[in-house]
Structures are given as structure tokens and as C-alpha cells.
Amino acid sequence: MQFLFTKNFPETVTRVHLVDTEVDEVVREGSTKNLSFGIGVREKMTRRKLMLLVRRVMMSVKEHQVEECALYWEEWQFQHLMIDESEMAEIFATNALMTDFSFDIFKTKPKDGFRKVEKIFFASAVQSRISKGLKKGIIIGEEVNRSRHIATMPGGEMTPSLLASHAKQSIKGLPIKLSVLGEKEMKKLKMGGIIGVGEGSREKSCFIVLEYFGTDKKQAPIVLVGKGVTFDTGGINLKPSDSIFGMNMDMSGGASVIHALTSAVRLKMKKNIVALIPAVENMASGSSYRPGDILRSMSGKTIEVLNTDAEGRIILADALIYAKKYRPSLVVDVATLTGAALVALGERASALFTQDEKLETLFRHLGEESGDYVWPLPLWDDYDDEVKGTFGDVANLGKTRWGGAITAAIFLKQFVDKAYPWVHLDIAPRMTTLPDEFLAKGSAGAPVRLLVKLLEKF
Questions:
Q1: Residue 218 in domain
Q2: Residues 365, 402: one domain?
Q3: pLDDT(344) > 80
Q4: CATH for 61
Q5: How confident is the model at residue 136 (pLDDT cuts 50, 70, 90)?
């Protein structure tokens, strides 16, 4: 998608208008097509509605098979929202690109091609005011879509080693160092959690490390940890048929941290950032780890396996321990961790866990600003006993069926051990798009936009 500036719109280009009604209209004037979108009372527009408006407009433009359109920038100004033109341009570009994305690489291309919006024209007078915001929004939108692309890939096309290859391709030309630890290196580090979970697969597990030093290396980095289960059968505790479909997207956390990092580097942020992705397949076979097994984590703490489908927290435990070597200023882990988060929150916000009230407030604010919404759940020490093991130090399941998202976070807390400021995001509620979001089916790309805002402002 190109964003272009011109003094005079070509006559054949479709005009896009926002009108203060509730009705959308298509009007032809000679060779010119006009698409009018009703927005109701302008003063009732909110930031949330604005992002959806961009997507609704772009989705409709695509459905009308319009490849080139022109819009009037002044119509997109909502003074009461206190959004300056540069930020409005960023919001527009990011959401326009997100709407234009579709996962169609395995489909036979139609004779007239897939529907795409090729060009959007703006009046030339606004170029100096919005071009910077557009460029920023384009970078973020592109990286969100790249995250969505790899997260939506079938499990056979995105194994742990292929995820590492994708990371290598993603950082090409960028000043990011990539290290991929294989099983031999992980055994030396005593990463028993990652090794144990991956034992049932013929695909070898790996640990992906991406390092970017955009400022003095003495400055403590922000570390992003992303769950990289490239397919999750549940292991010996096999998932039922309805739950196993879509588990190719169980590495959405890993995809998001890779592309939050590449966004930050493309935006030339002067920060030190590390991304860690433990990558495994959780498969059921004769060599799979079993309920009742005891795994020894990198810290030496033992993990009692009560359920092999609670595997994400086990591999994240090793990654959170590994993060300590960087003496980070902040660690954020991102994972499609629990169905319980879906039960608690539905599908419109990720679950947020932290014991730092300032970080909780910051993440909620950045969630609203970015469109990757989050909502807090408790991480009280009172819950610690829920994950105390019988035959091992920590059990990978709570003692009751209740509060599963909380006990998963509490499990992770045992391996952080207050070594650094920490936030856990359970993005299971935001793994896939919803019909009323005006986005293609598949990965939602959460929380790339939130993480970019965090890296920019923390």
C-alpha cells in the first residue's frame, strides 16, 4: 500500500468521505465514484471507535474492489480527542495496513488477483504535517502483519527451526544479533523445561535470542519473552478436537516479540532490547513427557508435571531464568497461555499480571493508546500455595479448577523471584481476530502495537 500526495486527485480515483449521518452511501458523478461513510455525531467519536472507523472504511474500499482512493484529511480531524495530525496519521496508516492484510499464500490466485488497496492519495498541503506519522504507522502496520503472517502459518510450515529461520530473515539488514541455541546448548544450560516439553516431537526444539543495542551497552535492556509453541497437541493430555484446531497459533507470543523488536529497530529507537523465544512442538508420542514427570528447570527448581497441556509456562520458566543474565530494567513475557483468560475476559483484551502498580497503570494506558487492550488480574502472594508441588518444587497446574489464568501467572512468578520488574501478558483472548474488528481471519497480531509503545516510552 502506498500513501501519496497530490494537488489534484485523478478523476478516476474513488473519493472517500466521512459524513455526519448514520448511513453509508455510494454515489457516482460522471467517471468519479464517491464512497460516503456515516460516522454519526462527531463529538461521540472515541479513540477506540476511530481505529475501527479506519478499518471499516478500508474494508469497504476493498469490498468495492477499489485499488486507488483519495481522502480528505480535514474530515479525519476530531478535535475533542486531542490527537495531533502526526499521531492521527500513524493511527490511520497502521490500521489501514492491518485491514489490507489477508493470509492467502496457500490460495490459488484469482485471474484479477486478490483484493488489495494499492494507493491512497492525500491533498499535498498536508504532506509536511502528516508524513512523519504515516511513515511510523507504515512500519508498525507492516510488522504487525508480519507477526500475523507467521502466527497464522500451518504448524507444518512453522516448526521451531523454521521459526528461527524466520527470525533470521526478519532481521536481515538490521543491527540485531541472532543466536539460536540447539538442544546441545540447552542441555549445557540445564534448560530442562524446554527440553522436556519438546521431547515428544521429531522437530528439534531451540531457544532463539535476539539482541539489539541501540545505546550504551551499560544501560539495562528491556527483555521481551515470547512463547514459541509452534504446534500444541496437548501432549499425552491430548486436546479435544474442537480445542486443537488453531494451535498452530500457539507461538503468537514469539511472533509478537520478534516483530515488536524489528519495529523498534526500524523506528531507530535508542534503547537496548532483547527478545527471547523458547521454540518447541508439544506432540503426543512414545517419547513425550508424561503426567507425573519431574522436570528440572534452569534455576534448579523442579517442576512437577500434572498436565502436559500446561506446557507454555514450563518453557517460559527457563526463558525467564535466562533473562536474569541481562540484569534487565524490565521483562515482559507474552504468551497464549490459558483458556481461563478467555473465560475471564472474553476475546477483547489480554490478561495483564504484575505486582507493580505503576507498570499496571502504564500498560493499561498504552493498551488504550495502541489498540491492544489489556485488563489486570491479581498476582497476589496469597495464591502461591496453589502451585506448590507434592513431589517437586512447583506444580504446573493449580490445586483446583478455578482461576487458571492466575495460577499460570503465579507459576511463572516462582521463577522470576523478584529478580527484575516483570509483567506477564496472557494473550490467549487476543490470539485471533473477531468479525466486528474489520480484519481478516487468523492471528490478530496482538500485542505488537502495545509493545512498540512500551519500548518507545518506558
A1: yes
A2: yes
A3: yes
A4: 3.40.220.10
A5: very high
Task: State the pTM of this model.
Answer: 0.97
**258 lies in the same domain as 316:** yes
Residue 201 structural domain: 153-457
In a domain, residue 147? The reply is no
Catalytic site positions: 239, 313
pLDDT band at 122 (very low <50, low <70, confident <90, very high): very high
Domains of the chain: total: 2
Domain C-terminal end among 141, 174, 206: 141
Q: Is residue 148, in this structure, part of any structural domain at all?
A: no
What's the chain look like in SS3? CEEEEECCCCCCCEEEEEECCCCCEEEEECCEEEEEEECCCHHHCCHHHHHHHHHHHHHHHHHCCCCEEEECHHHHCCHHHCCCHHHHHHHHHHHHHHHHCCCCCCCCCCCCCCCCCCEEEEEHHHHHHHHHHHHHHHHHHHHHHHHHHHHHCCHHHCCHHHHHHHHHHHCCCCCCEEEEECHHHHHHCCCHHHHHHHCCCCCCCEEEEEEEECCCCCCCCEEEEECEEEEECCCCCCCCHHHHCCHHHHHHHHHHHHHHHHHHHHCCCCCEEEEEEEEEEECCCCCCCCCCCEEECCCCCEEECCCCCCCHHHHHHHHHHHHHHHCCCEEEEEECCCHHHHHHHCCCCEEEECCCHHHHHHHHHHHHHHCCCEEECCCCHHHHHHHECCCCCEECCCCCCCCHHHHHHHHHHHHHCCCCCEEEEECHHHCECCHHHCCCCCECCCCHHHHHHHHHHC
